[in-house]
Design brief:
The chain has helices at residues 2-8, 28-32, 45-48, 52-67, 85-88, 96-110, 182-185, 187-205, 221-237, 256-259, 261-276, 296-319, 343-356, 361-367, and strands at 70-74, 80-81, 112-120, 126-132, 137-141, 154-159, 162-164, 172-176, 211-215, 247-251, 329-333. The protein is an alpha+beta fold and 373 residues long. Helix 4 runs parallel beside helix 11 and helix 8 runs antiparallel to helix 11 (261-276).
């Protein structure tokens, strides 16, 4: 914190909402992708979400993060303190789950995310903020050489083309991810998967391989169009075709089986899973897997530790900055319910703890909601 405070001339006073995090201090994307600068991607969010594997990965990662409860704890002893309304529900017009899900998605897809302060408290900390899509935000950098994205320090932001304050009411709370974002880092891979989805649709629209109908007699354009429309309608209703001696049928191209479209889609799902750093079976890749009561806890811990934690850390560390959370407190995710073991595992735990006197039968019944009011 001290380095950035010196860099931007920020006062460490808790009551003033001028901290280093108010403006992201470094344009890390220029280093992460020196030849394909941030903002240039071969795939859009709308196109990417039409790829089932991408949509599945996004929903598993971002919706899971959005559903996890946030809480505030003291750094000194890790004890809980009252969670401010801003942390529980940043935007009173939306559920917290919706806000944090889209924020996590922006971090996953683009490497950054934003909230815009709507209301400030007496201590200049935000009381409410709205989620702002990255597509609406333009960053202003301190150096504009051959390319405006080649600057190294962010000096300000614009939303929908209008400059916003660097701090205070109406300013942005920037969240910084861990790389340039999936749409850039894996843009070519997702573009290939998107092209495969379009190829599958083409074959679905045309129930048989591509074909040519050749007339042995001259035909006007209207008659040709009517013939093609009639042929397509007939093929949708009947697999067997009939042609008279004035029309020849020629089949060209390849069938979906010959093109191995299904295998290609499975392969691309595996590649997208690797790009998202989640197990392949989560998105229907080639690797087989299953979840049982015996391994669900281990699977969930693995999902958090190896896949979701970088995104979760980007959110919690920013929310823990002193312009949002008072000094001495930090924001954490409560993973107790997410890690909750199966009923059989809990019974085994109780069987060990009750004889040791660590837990009573009444406490175990209370945890299992077996206490009658």
């Amino acid at each position: 914190m001290g380095f950035f405070q010196n860099l931007l001339g920020v006062t460490p006073d808790d009551s003033v909402n001028k901290v280093d995090a108010a403006v992201a201090p470094y344009n890390y994307q220029a280093v992460a992708q020196p030849f394909d600068f941030f903002g240039t991607t071969s795939i859009t969010r709308a196109q990417a979400m039409q790829v089932p594997a991408v949509a599945r990965a996004r929903n598993i990662m971002c919706a899971t993060i959005g559903s996890l409860p946030l809480e505030v704890r003291r750094e000194s002893n890790n004890s809980k303190v009252t969670t401010p309304p801003f942390i529980r529900q940043p935007d009173p017009r939306m559920t917290a789950q919706a806000v944090y899900t889209f924020l996590a998605e922006d971090l996953l897809f683009t490497g950054q995310g934003y909230l815009r302060i709507m209301e400030l408290g007496a201590d200049n900390r935000p009381l409410s903020a709205e989620w702002i899509s990255v597509s609406r935000v333009t960053r202003e950098l301190d150096f504009t050489g051959l390319n405006s994205n080649q600057g190294y320090n962010v000096t300000g932001y614009s939303v929908d083309g209008k400059r916003v304050p660097n701090y205070g009411l109406g300013s942005l709370i920037p969240f910084t991810g861990y790389d340039e974002g999936l749409l850039v880092r894996a843009g070519t891979t997702i573009q290939t998967a998107y092209a495969l989805e379009k190829a599958v649709k083409r074959f679905a629209d045309e129930p048989v391989p591509s074909m040519i109908l050749k007339s042995n007699l001259p035909m006007p354009a209207e008659r040709v169009t009517a013939l093609l429309n009639s042929w397509k309608e007939a093929r949708n209703n009947r697999a067997t075709a009939f042609v008279n001696d004035t029309v020849d049928f020629q089949s060209v191209g390849f069938s979906p089986e010959q093109l191995t479209l299904n295998q290609a889609r499975q392969y691309m799902a595996s590649e997208i899973a690797r790009a998202c750093n989640i197990p392949e079976y989560y998105v229907g890749g080639n690797a087989a897997g299953s979840m049982t009561y015996s391994n669900v806890t281990a699977e969930r811990r693995s999902l958090i530790d190896l896949s979701l934690r970088p995104l979760m850390t980007a959110i919690t560390q920013r929310l823990s900055d002193i312009d949002i959370t008072p000094r001495g407190s930090i924001v954490k995710y409560n993973l107790e319910e997410f890690y909750s073991p199966s009923a059989q595992e809990r019974a085994q735990i109780y069987a060990q703890l009750i004889p040791l006197g660590v837990m009573t039968v009444e406490e175990a019944r209370e945890r299992e909601d077996l206490i009658n009011g």
